[in-house]
Design brief:
two-stranded antiparallel ribbon, 9 strands, 292 residues, seven-stranded mixed sheet
């Protein structure tokens, strides 16, 4: 059994050996608690036939735990300074591959076709850099990759927004976008004390299980997301005010917007946060003919 990377002593040894300094701009916070890493991997329900995509492996603490329980791990690392460290720390694991790239600029589907040929069960498991959490999750979902789900650690407040229900202060266009594609649940809260350097906020791990079909049928996904974003543009405004001010030609088409709201039985005085995903789907389908 190899000595775990994720202990305070071993992490410090590795960082000192390579003279590594943390870059705030890359949101680098490394986990130093093996127990928590193992629990994150537990939530992904991996088998020795699973392929795993990781984003931001750092010095390989989570990568190592995934590698022990899966068939193959492909990790995207943007920071060139970490490549020699990962080469050393992951050398015991022949089933790991590091790609020096920004995951937001990569064709993930073609990477999967190459690296996971013959693997039918693929998960994303990562301790995401906080400053790009949302764009990474949305990219993975919008590209409709053949993945079973996503288990990621992120800021607790972002996790709360993703898993939020209608009528709560955290509910917004992000909640709707993620819940459209997946079933979202917060599976654990992680204190800031188990990281170096310590972040300013606590973290949470969320599990997103990809739905076989989206939660609601819509005529145009792009327009559906445009409507939800517009509806939350200013949270204190009514749905009517937000739609007229945010949609192209919204002011000129106020009567059409009122008519569509009436058609789907949504009071124009309601706020976006009170609408369910089903109501947003009905509304976007009713508005679509007026904005094509």
């Amino acid at each position: 059994m190899n000595k775990d990377i994720a202990t305070p002593v071993r992490t410090r040894e590795i960082l000192e050996k390579y003279g590594f300094s943390f870059k705030k701009s890359l949101g680098q916070n490394f986990l130093i608690d093996t127990n928590i890493l193992n629990r994150i991997v537990d939530h992904a329900n991996l088998t020795d036939e699973s392929g795993v995509i990781e984003v931001g492996p750092g010095i390989g603490a989570l990568t190592e735990q995934i590698a022990r329980r899966s068939k193959k791990v492909v990790a995207f690392e943007i920071d060139q300074r970490l490549l020699p460290i990962l080469e050393e720390t992951l050398s015991p694991y022949g089933n790991t591959k590091i790609i020096h790239s920004d995951v937001l600029k990569v064709d993930v589907a073609s990477m999967m076709a190459t690296e996971f040929a013959g693997i039918t069960d693929v998960m994303v498991v990562a301790n995401l850099p906080y400053y790009v959490t949302t764009p990474i999750i949305m990219k993975l979902l919008e590209e409709k990759l053949p993945i079973r789900g996503i288990v990621v650690m992120l800021q607790k407040e972002v996790a709360e927004r993703i898993a939020a229900k209608p009528g709560t202060k955290d509910y917004g266009s992000l909640s709707i976008a993620v819940q459209y594609y997946t079933e979202a649940e917060t599976v654990m809260i992680v204190p800031k004390t188990v990281f170096v350097p310590q972040p300013n906020v606590d973290s949470a791990v969320i599990r997103l299980t990809v739905r076989a079909t989206p939660k609601v049928p819509v005529k145009s996904e792009a327009f559906f997301f445009q409507i939800t974003k517009a509806s939350f543009a200013q949270r204190r405004k009514t749905i009517l005010n937000n739609l007229t001010s945010q949609l192209p030609e919204g002011k000129e088409k106020k009567e059409e917007i009122l008519s569509a709201l009436s058609q789907v039985n949504i009071e124009p005085t309601r706020r976006g946060e009170t609408l369910s995903i089903e109501e947003f789907a009905a509304l976007s389908d009713a508005l679509l003919p007026h904005f094509q």
